[in-house]
Structure formats: C-alpha cells, structure tokens
Amino acid sequence: MPHHHARTQVAIIGGGPAGLLLSHILNENGIDSVVLERRTKAYVLSRIRAGLLEASTVQLFRDYGLAERMDRNGKSKDGSWITRQGFDSYFIDTHKWTGKSMMVYGQTEITEDLYNAREQAGGQVINEAEDVNLCDVTSDTPFVTYTKDDKSYRLDCDYIAGCDGFHGISRKTIPADILRTYERAYPFGWLGIMAEVPPLPDLIYAYHERGFALASQRSRLLSRYYIQCPLTDTVMNWSDDRFWEELIARFPKEVASEIITGPSIEKSIAPLRSFVAEPMQYGRLFLAGDAAHIVPPTGAKGLNLAASDVFYLSRGLVEQINNNRPHHLQHYSEVALRRVWSSENISWRMTQLLHVFPNMDRFDARIQQNNYELLLQSEAQQQALAEEYVGAPFEQLDALVPTPV
Ligand code: RFL
Ligand code: PHB
Predict the structure, then answer these.
(1) Higher pLDDT residue, 32 or 47?
(2) N or C: which end of the chain has fewer CB within 10 A?
(3) What is the C-alpha R_g of the chain?
(4) Ligand 1, atom 13: closest residue by C-alpha
(5) Strand order across the 285-287 sheet
(6) Nearest atom (ligand 2) to Cα of 350
(7) CA 194: distance to chain centroid?
(8) In this model, does residue 403 exceed pLDDT 70?
(9) What average pLDDT does this structure show over 130-140?
(10) DSSP letter for each residue of 206-273
C-alpha cells in the first residue's frame, strides 16, 4: 500500500504525560518530534490518575515553563499522614527531613497543560493513530508506520521513544531473548472515587483490618479517595453510600468525622502491580514511563518516574543530536533504571506496610505491625522514608563514568 511519507528527528509513540513532556523538552532544545497517540485528545484528557508530584518533577516542570497553572492551582504539601488502628498516627515529614515539599496537582491538568504547550509551539501530536508499527529499530534509519482515517503513513526518524504505557506496542518490539522482565501482582485493587466536596486538609494513608484507605485531593473543592478492594470486585457493587460507609470505617474516628461525603463524579477500580522491563533501550528505540515499568500507586511514584525517565532521555537525545556526544544516551537505560528500582522498592514496601493481604498469616501480621512501630520510634527510619517518598534528585551524569586515567 502506498504510504504518505514524512520525516522527523524523534518519533514518539504515545501522547500521555511521558510522550508529551518529551516532545516539549526536545522542542525547547530545537529538536523536532512527532507524537503518535492511539486515542482521541478528549479521551486522553478524561483519564483520572495521579495526583501527587515529587519535588524533582515540580522543578522539571518549572524549568521548562510548564508550571504556571500548577503554581497557581496546585497545593504544596510538606508530607503525608499514615494512620493505623490502635496506634499513634505518623506524619511523613518531607520538609523536616529533606527540606523539600511535594505538590498536589492532577495528572489530568498536567496532560492538558502539556497539550496546550505543544499546540502553542506548533508541535505535531497525531491523535487516533492506529496500527503503529516500529521498523528497523536496530538500524541507523528506523521508521514508524501507522494508519489514520484509513490512510497509511510512514514516518522516518533518527530515534524512537516508546512512551505508550503498559499496554503499548513499543516494549513488545524488543525481542523476548533480550528483554528481562520482573513482576509482582498484588491480590487486591484500589477502588477510587472523585467527588466535588472539600477534601481533608492533608493526604492520609490508612491501614485498617478491613483494608487500606487513602484520602487525597485535587483542589479545594475536589476530593479523591481510594479503598482497597478484592480483584474480583466491580464498580457496580459499590454504590456511593456503600463506598463512603466503608471509607469512613477505615479511618480513625477523629479523621472519619471530618470527611465530607457527596455524589461521586467518577469511580473506577485499578489492580495493583509492580513491573520492570530491562533494558530500556533496544537499538534506536528508548522506552520511557509506564511502557517500561509499573508501580503500585501506594508511593505515588508512577507519573514521577515517567518524568525522571523523560529528563534522562531528553538529556541523552539533546547531547547526541545537538552536540554529537553519545555518552548520556548510551547510559540512559542504566541511569533511568537506578531510579526506577528505588521507586519500585519504596512502592512495594509502602504497599506491604499499609494493606491487608488475604494470604497473610499471624507472623506476617506481626512483622507488618512491627514495621509501623519502628517507623514511630526510629528517626533513622523516618528520615529514610521521607527521602524515598519525596523522591531522589535526578543524577547529574558526569559523575557516572569514571574518567579514564
Ligand atoms: P500513559 O499515561 O499510560 O500514556 C501512554 C499513552 O500511550 C497511548 N498508547 C498508544 N499510542 C499509540 N500506539 C499504541 N499502540 C499505543 N498504546 C498506548 C495511550 O493511549 C496513552 O495515551 O503512560 P505514561 O505517559 O508513561 O504516564 C504514566 C502515568 O500515567 C502513570 O504512571 C501514573 O498515572 C501512575 N499513577 C500515579 N503516579 C504518580 O506519580 N502519582 C500518583 O499519585 C499516581 N496515582 C496512578 C495513580 C495510576 C493510577 N491508575 C489508574 C493506573 C492512581 C491511579 C488510580
Ligand atoms: C492521588 O491523589 O490520586 C494519589 C495520591 C497519593 C498516592 C496515590 C494516588 O499515593
């Protein structure tokens, strides 16, 4: 079939936060890219997901002129609370231990800000690009084919960025004998709701024998709440009344009495999973964000990892393309994966600490309780958790490879 032919420097697969942010940063550095997104813009903007940004993510958005609305409407947070039935509550004090704060600002808003920034700069985001196929990725002349409105297209490029999320095709392009994967599925999901009611002042992670719960927020008038639920559950089983009743039962009384309930405007269930694919590079294809790894949402790391991957990848591409220095790009996978594994680790541990595992025996339960007691008692543990929760700074790479003597 004849192809409509086009060319760009970097073909970006997926127009979620990772793909759009990469495209924006490349453009700021004079590098041309095209984003191919399978869904409509309206669909991408309607997905409700992350809400909490690490200090480094906030800084990255500021550095690239993307923070105007975030700084106006986002809410800075010096940490989050953990509660556990029968014990004192604990504040993860990121400000005290790291001097840094986090930001509550929705992924929906971030994606909208990124779309606007791309549109203002005349960037190309092609929505409803179907049957995307990555070709010749180990050659010097890779290309991408896709169809749109029943026409077929070919996009020649120098590099391909796979930013197409966990279910995308980029990772699947890497041969099975090269890709190593690591996975943990958890025996429960999170049922989340959004409601137009004032939230609690702080984020609160609650452990309760009935299961985990989380109080979060999007704005002064928009609350986001989650409860742990069985994987077999469906949204149909959860009327608003049942949700609020269960949520309230999982927080300490003095917290529960402050929760303002109201009709939900969104309700969904997400399974929890840990997943890493290594390496994040194959020839001229580079993976970033959920395309390469998944974390359970307990540590609020997913979107932040997408941002750190994009930081490292954009630096590699800019150095390679603009300055002919291959060093950063060559080490992309290795550097990005260090941060990925740190986030996998804290997300896994917070998930262990805060959920009821159906197969937990009495020994496991006492270890879980003891881990919480350690946190209450040990300043070393408190500092470690605060550092991990607020997120590691991005590595300045020049220290990575020793200069030959
Ligand atoms: P995305 O957002 O999945 O975007 C990938 C895009 O690729 C498109 N796509 C394709 N395009 C072309 N061709 C194909 N074959 C394609 N296949 C897929 C998709 O349509 C989509 O638009 O991945 P990206 O950009 O890597 O971003 C990752 C984040 O979205 C994700 O990590 C976070 O949402 C995770 N997450 C959280 N992260 C945080 O940092 N803090 C949080 O508080 C937080 N809370 C959450 C979360 C994720 C959740 N769910 C539902 C998974 C809470 C929840 C409930
Ligand atoms: C959210 O607001 O959606 C949120 C906040 C913190 C988390 C996970 C999700 O750990």
Answers:
(1) 32
(2) C
(3) 22
(4) 38
(5) 124-126, 33-36, 10-13, 159-162, 285-287, 281-282
(6) 10
(7) 19
(8) no
(9) 98
(10) EE-TT--EEEEEEETTEEEEEEEE-TT--GGG--HHHHHHHHHHHS-HHHHTTPPP--EEEEEEEEEE
- Ligand 1 atom nearest residue 36's Cα: 12
The string of pLDDT tens digits covering residues 336-363 is: 999 999 999 999 999 999 999 999 999 9
Amino acid letter, 41: K
Q: How buried is residue 399: exposed, middle or buried, by Cβ count under 10 Å (0-12/13-18/19+)?
A: exposed
Collapsing DSSP to helix, strand or coil, 202 comes out as coil
Which ligand 2 atom is at minimum distance from the Cα of 217? 2
- For the entire predicted model, the pTM comes to 0.96
Q: Are 9 and 158 in contact (CB under 8 A)?
A: yes
Task: Report which protein residue has its CA nearest ligand 2's atom 6.
Answer: 300
H helices of 40-190, in order, are: 41-46, 55-63, 68-73, 94-98, 107-120, 170-173
Maximum distance among all Cα pairs of the chain, rounded to whole angstroms: 69
Average pLDDT, the chain: 96
Tell me the CA–centroid distance for residue 50 and ligand 1, in Å: 9
User: Residue 398: what pLDDT?
Assistant: 60
Is 320 near ligand 1, meaning CB less than 6 Å away?
A: no
Q: What is the distance in A from the centroid of ligand 2 to the CA of 346?
A: 14
Handedness of CA 90, 94, 99, 104 (dihedral sign): negative
**Among the atoms of ligand 1, which is closest to the Cα of residue 304?**
40
300 lines ligand 2 (CB under 6 A): yes
- Given pLDDT bands bounded at 50, 70 and 90, which one contains residue 49? confident
Reported as a single tens digit per residue, the pLDDT across 194-236 is: 999 999 999 999 999 999 999 999 999 999 999 999 999 999 9
Q: Would you state the pLDDT for residue 1?
A: 58
Question: Is 297's C-beta closer than 6 angstroms to any atom of ligand 2?
Answer: yes
